[in-house]
Amino acid sequence: MMELRQLRYFIAVAEELHFTRAAARMHIGQPPLSHAIQMLEDDIGAQLFERTKRSVKLTVAGQLFLQDARRIIALTESARDTAKKAAQGETGELRIGFTFSTPFTSLFSNVIKHYRARYPEVNLSFHEMSTNRQLEQIEKQQLDLGFIRPPDGSTEGNMKFNHLQLSLLRRDPLMVVLPITHALSKKKKLGLKELADESFIMYPHKAGTGIYPQVMRLCQALGFSPKIAHEVGEASTIIGLVASDCGVSILPGSFERLQMDGVCYRPLSDSNATTSLLLARPQGSSNPLIQAFSALALKQAQLKTR
Q1: Architecture, CATH, for domain 92-170+275-305
Q2: Distance separating alpha carbons of residues 160 and 296, to the nearest angstrom
Q3: pLDDT tens digit string along 241-271?
Q4: Which residues of the chain form beta strands (DSSP E)?
Q5: Three-class DSSP category at 67
């Protein structure tokens, strides 16, 4: 059976057209080199060189074989380099999920920018979806990792969820979204209790966001249940309905960047009115792509908190 070693010996002889020089180039003796070429010719069933005492020339078969031999060696080296880069997390594809509010955080853009600069050969595919759907997709290995809010609306940092690991990246204040004409818009901060009589515009309960259960729990802890006037699936629609004076809403502070006429944002004064941005990935994953991305994301998160 033909070996890569034999192909390299053949290419050396074909380029040098001299067995002694080819042997020195390949750091072996001339007899073993001559034997390897003879074995190669026997295996192929064709003479590759015309040999005389004074010269070595490629036969027609040898000339054609040289082209293929070079291609095989080049492909082998390419495959080796690809495998090495993949093992180091430098090539491949990474499927990243993120919640609707994530792109409005500077951390997300910083992580993606630094990762693309450091690992330009990794193809990134992005998927916007709710927290719960991301967790399901990662469990099913249809996503590699995700930027999520706490699935139960809690404010915990590092935690485990089934077979996933969740790591805290940052905390965001919860903001009240108000019509600019609302009486409470004159205040710099609001207590959640002040919204007890307001009509709320929220994500649907079944949307799988972490904000819905968190808002419900915070309100109930203060002795009231929010009156939900409308449930819509897009943050831009929620804010648009607020601008239309259809009610108020509570969203992560990152949405403050989404400015719209007729709307203002006010922070909540309640100490526990915050939401976390977490990085979710498979527990104990040995995938070098996931490991490299996670390390970079956590490092960027630490830099942003200093």
Answers
A1: 3-Layer(aba) Sandwich (3.40)
A2: 20
A3: 999 999 999 999 989 888 899 999 999 999 8
A4: 49-51, 56-58, 92-98, 122-128, 145-148, 159-161, 164-179, 199-202, 227-231, 249-252, 263-267, 274-282
A5: helix
- Summarised one tens digit per residue, pLDDT across range 108-132 is 999 999 999 999 989 999 999 989 8
Annotated domain spans of the chain: 4-87, 92-170+275-305, 173-274
Contact 281, 182 (CB under 8 A): no
Examine domains 92-170+275-305 and 173-274 and report if their fold is the same: yes
The H or E element that residue 65 is part of is helix 60-87
CATH number for domain 4-87, candidates 3.30.830.10, 3.40.190.150, 1.20.1440.230, 1.10.10.10:
1.10.10.10
The DSSP element (H or E) to which 26 belongs, if any, is: helix 19-26
User: Rounded to the nearest 5 degrees, what angle is found at the Cα of 284, between the Cα atoms of 282 and 285?
Assistant: 60
- Asked if pLDDT for residue 145 goes beyond 60, the answer is yes
Share of the chain above pLDDT 70, in %: 94
Query: What pLDDT band is residue 306 in, cutting at 50, 70 and 90?
Result: very low
